[in-house]
Specification:
Blueprint: H1 2-30, H2 34-59, H3 63-88
Helix pairs in contact: 1-2, 2-3
Length: 93
Amino acid sequence: MSAIIVLTAVSLAQFMLAAAMAIASIRMFRGPRAQDRIIGLDTLYINAMLLLVTFGIGTGRVIYFEAALVIGMLGFVATVALAKFLMRGEVIE
């Protein structure tokens, strides 16, 4: 009984995360300003990371959690670099 509940909850979460990724993609491509595009990219990578975590919960494989960790670290660095580029016009001083 509890396995059916977990499987249903994970499937529902995956569907909602996929919908959130679609909305974030629209914001990333159609954002009126560069700041909106960066926020869309930030939201997109967070949703991708959470989608991998739900895949890991559903399948029980560890590789999805490691991939989510890598996406989280690279996404954070990319967001910081883009924000610094918007503020100063250069990334490396």
